[in-house]
Amino acid sequence: MKIIEVQNYDQMSQQAAKIIIETVQDRPQTVLGLATGGTPLGTYTYLVRDHQLNGTSYKQVHTVNLDEYVGKAPSDEQSYSYYMNKHLFEPANIPKTQTYLPNGLAANLEEEAERYTHTLQSLGGVDLQLLGIGKNGHIGFNEPGTSFDSETHVVQLTPSTRQANAKYFSSESEVPTQAITLGIATIMKAKRILLIVSGIEKAEILYQCLYGQIDEQIPASILQKHPHVTIIADQEALSVVNQKAEAH
Ligand code: PGA
Fold first, then answer.
1. Pairing of strands 67-69, 178-181
2. Which residue numbers delimit the Glucosamine/galactosamine-6-phosphate isomerase domain (predicted)?
3. What is the mean pLDDT of the chain?
4. How many domains in the chain?
């Protein structure tokens, strides 16, 4: 694992964008695995800025998102589809037909999860997966206790995740209770993983993810086994890691 320590959220976003831009410039047909939530927003802002200023093209890129809420349509502002269209796909001119998210409105959710796995396989897998980490150690919506062997599946969101995401809704009761997410085994198949982490509230879980036991109770701890992970984290997020290193 390669750890890049930066000062703050803005630098994290800039560094992550730089790696994605270089990857796409190097291989225009790159399959990007993408994430939502608060952490990647700055990264997407830098990608869009670079696209506008320097013309980096995403015409041949395919994107596969980690997850989507069950019951949310792409037209719904709280859906991840809406988020991606607004923050990245439209402003970076990524052809809509080359962007994939699970369909949270599918009548048969299990079938939809399977269909999404096939979509990913037909693209040849993810070249570069951008990942955030939840305060409880989740990656995608793979909550603590999820099998490391899991493929794309339907999940019940934990109270802590619904609470963390309530800021995007008018109340916690409106946060969906289910989602479709790439599984942990699916995420681990990405050729390269870029984990971005910012803020003091992620400091303890980042330490456990990097140096704790590899345990299904901390889904992100599996990343220790991935051969090609880059972590970009700011000083606050690395504060527990650095404290423990000093203590030794
Ligand atoms: P956040 O979420 O970026 O909104 O903190 C990260 C995650 O839950 O994976």
1. antiparallel
2. 10-226
3. 97
4. 1
